[in-house]
DNA sequence: GTGTAAGGGAACGAATAATTCCGTTCTACT
DNA sequence: AGTAGAACGGAATTATTCGTTCCCTTACAC
């Protein structure tokens, strides 16, 4: 609480966090919702980003960067090949990079730099996939693009609060990993299965 | 092309088909989009349904009915238990009932009757699940609610035209079925994996 | 004290969309 | 042939939503 500059620096982060939370929950959310969530006025947003689009581009760029980081970290893992691959998958699901990247596509105009980051991210993912197949732990008829779509399917799950959502995503990640691994096998599923009430509650929620 | 009455009857169906297509593609689509897709004026819609909400309720009801039909048909299958269960899963994915039901939730106010249909649908799904587990062909740590969420994940896939989308949905259904079946095994995946171009194209599509 | 960066939030203006309304067309029946 | 009215097309209406701008206030730095 020392000085306007410190407050501003704190707001930088507050706004980004709020934007992440709001836009991952609803990619079409109004910018006022971000300001409210951050507890700041609208002009605090416009002081930092010239437009909504610029903010979305920033978020997407951060998401791609995060994706790249997680993947590079997994590529550096020299241990058990399957565990390295599985850890990578869990890492991407945890980071929820899909909600910050492809799910936002269409709400803004992608920049050249975003394109370059996306290419790099794709290359790293392919490398990760290649390694697991070469080590004989990942079924070879699944391609890197398949993995990308599997991530999207898992990211489509949204139920209850953030923690419950994460728990369920890991549950289904574990399930699908059972059919990706060589040899296939059933492993214990983490987290409790959804309750009927959790599912039926959604009928009354405004979209 | 005989008479206004025949034309009107034809329009009944045209409008429903258009509504299904439009709202499964975008649950928040404007009603004018339905009219345009159907090739009729807006008043042709309002003559049949008092409001947008009424149309959505009708679509959802039809979707639940379809779900119930497919499930009852599968329950009537007395052949190989696994094949019956797998056929049921494929049937639901093909019918795309998820896009007409839970995906529309929040865009309208559910009626009592819809609630009853949903309960019935749930009961039938549970029966289907129970049978497969009892026959020892479905892993028992997966619950009916799990199956429901798996359907939703698969229904979240939307890539290219309708046929391509269907193809990919079956690809990932097959994949996840590998980890549902007792014993687990890898079976051939149907349909070609997504191309990189198919995935990257979405960056420019308006949401 | 005062200049100025930072911020709050009302006001503006441009969509977007549900619904209504009015004039037109075509059929069925006299 | 003439006409009542069902079925329609689509413009006009009205409400609402949102991105963006603007103006005024605050509080720190000097």
Automatic annotation (TrEMBL), chains A, B:
Signal sequence, renumbered to the chain: none
Pfam family, one: TetR_N
Region (Disordered): 183-207
InterPro entries: Homeodomain-like_sf, HTH-type_TetR-like_transc_reg, HTH_TetR, Tet_transcr_reg_TetR-rel_C_sf, TetR_SbtR-like_C
Keyword annotations: DNA-binding, Transcription, Transcription regulation
Domain HTH tetR-type: 9-67
Superkingdom to which the source organism belongs: Bacteria
Positions of the DNA-binding region: 30-49
Gene3D superfamilies in the cross-refs: Tetracycline Repressor, domain 2
MF term (GO), any: DNA-binding transcription factor activity
DNA-binding keyword on record: yes
Keyword Transcription regulation among UniProt keywords: yes
Name of this protein: TetR/AcrR family transcriptional regulator
Native species: Nonomuraea turkmeniaca
């Amino acid at each position: 609480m020392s000085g306007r500059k410190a407050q501003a620096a704190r707001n930088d982060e507050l706004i980004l966090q709020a934007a992440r939370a709001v836009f991952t929950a609803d990619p079409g959310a109004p910018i006022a919702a971000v300001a409210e969530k951050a507890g700041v006025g609208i002009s605090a947003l416009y002081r930092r980003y010239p437009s909504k689009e610029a903010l979305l581009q920033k978020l997407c760029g951060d998401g791609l960067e995060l994706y790249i980081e997680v993947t590079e970290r997994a590529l550096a893992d020299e241990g058990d090949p399957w565990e390295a691959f599985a850890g990578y998958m869990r890492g991407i699901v945890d980071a929820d990079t899909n909600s910050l990247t492809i799910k936002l596509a269409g709400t803004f105009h992608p920049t050249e730099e975003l394109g370059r980051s996306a290419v790099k991210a794709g290359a790293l993912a392919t490398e990760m996939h290649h390694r697991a197949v070469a080590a004989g732990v990942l079924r070879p008829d699944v391609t890197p693009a398949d993995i990308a779509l599997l991530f999207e399917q898992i990211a489509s799950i949204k139920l209850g609060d953030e923690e419950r959502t994460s728990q369920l995503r890991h549950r289904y990640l574990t399930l699908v990993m059972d059919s990706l691994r060589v040899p296939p096998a059933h492993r214990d599923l983490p987290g409790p299965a959804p309750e009927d009430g959790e599912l039926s509650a959604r009928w009354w929620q405004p979209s």
